[in-house]
């Protein structure tokens, strides 16, 4: 289930902090808690666990704010000055059909405040547009039809990392290790939902099932550094990459999961949100 929220700033020239992803995630959790406290607590405290791995996933994501107009930040600024009358946000959930009902109407007429100790921006949710689940053109296929290829573009930074001595080493999409780790992440996400559907895999095996290809002709890759829980003891510095197109060939149920729940890491913090550019025919044989 995907929504587009149209946000109206409460006044002009508000200061929006650059690291708005974490307070935006907290707002989303708050809405979920009011709608279904048990489900929100499950996501926040546990999530969907991967069998035999110390991993779990939330299976939701949201885009970066689409801000048509702002003042050019000055060197050293930690905020942007908003000049837009409307700002768009895409919110996307991978939910069981039975669970979708409680999300409907969740966002209508809500207020949103994004702030830290220095800066604050307040918004009203002007309207909510439900985006068709079939936008990905994935549901038109079935698992028996074999792999599907889709071209995606990023709506928020996409984070792929390799663990080295217990620490995440963030990879650019041009890195040779990126496709296999991208594939392994998506396979693990699917196994967290359907444990018996796929066996445990290493990255090389996952890359045979999920094939990632960066499209160099659309290459406008930009680096984005995000601080999660900024100013707190548990703050985490994450590096993602956005403004690029990529093709993924995989079973359609895995593509649907990535499209709705996000690709890569830290999706519930506003990473890995994508849109579909086109469906690509897959050669048979």
Automatic annotation (TrEMBL):
Residues 148-276 form the CRISPR associated protein Cas6 C-terminal domain. It is an enzyme of class 3 (hydrolase). Pfam families: Cas6_I-A, Cas_Cas6_C. The keyword Nuclease does not apply. PANTHER family: CRISPR-ASSOCIATED ENDORIBONUCLEASE CAS6 1 (PTHR36984:SF1). Belongs to the CRISPR-associated protein Cas6/Cse3/CasE family. InterPro entries: Cas_Cas6_C (IPR049435), CRISPR-assoc_prot_Cas6 (IPR010156), CRISPR-assoc_prot_Cas6_N_sf (IPR045747). This is CRISPR-associated endoribonuclease Cas6. GO terms for biological process: defense response to virus. CDD domains: Cas6_I-like (cd21140). Transmembrane segments: none annotated. Keywords: Antiviral defense, Hydrolase, RNA-binding. GO terms for molecular function: hydrolase activity, acting on ester bonds; RNA binding. It comes from Rhabdobacter roseus. Its EC number is 3.1.-.-.
């Amino acid at each position: 289930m995907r929504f587009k929220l149209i946000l109206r700033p409460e006044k002009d020239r508000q200061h929006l902090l650059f690291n708005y992803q974490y307070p935006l995630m907290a707002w989303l959790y708050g809405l979920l808690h009011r709608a279904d406290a048990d489900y929100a607590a499950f996501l926040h405290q546990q999530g969907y666990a991967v069998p035999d791995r110390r991993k779990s996933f939330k299976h939701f994501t949201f885009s970066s704010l689409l801000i048509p107009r702002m003042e050019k930040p000055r060197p050293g600024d930690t905020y942007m000055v908003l000049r837009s009358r409307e700002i768009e946000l895409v919110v996307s959930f991978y939910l069981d059909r039975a669970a979708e009902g409680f999300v409907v109407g969740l966002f209508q007429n809500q207020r949103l405040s994004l702030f830290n100790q220095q800066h604050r921006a307040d918004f009203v949710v002007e309207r909510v547009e439900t985006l068709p689940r079939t936008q990905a053109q994935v549901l038109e296929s079935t698992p028996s039809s074999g792999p599907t290829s889709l071209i995606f573009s990023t709506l928020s930074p996409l984070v792929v990392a390799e663990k080295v001595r217990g620490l995440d080493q963030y990879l650019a999409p041009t890195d040779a290790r990126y496709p296999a780790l991208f594939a392994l992440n998506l396979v693990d996400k699917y196994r967290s939902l359907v444990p018996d559907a796929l066996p445990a895999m290493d990255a090389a095996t996952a890359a045979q099932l999920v094939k990632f290809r960066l499209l160099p002709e659309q290459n406008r890759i930009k680096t984005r550094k995000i601080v999660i829980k900024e100013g707190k003891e548990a703050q985490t510095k994450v590096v993602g990459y956005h403004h690029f197109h990529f093709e993924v060939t995989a079973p359609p149920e895995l593509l649907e999961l990535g499209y709705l729940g996000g690709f890569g890491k830290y999706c519930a913090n506003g990473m890995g949100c994508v849109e579909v550019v086109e469906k690509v025919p897959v050669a048979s044989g």
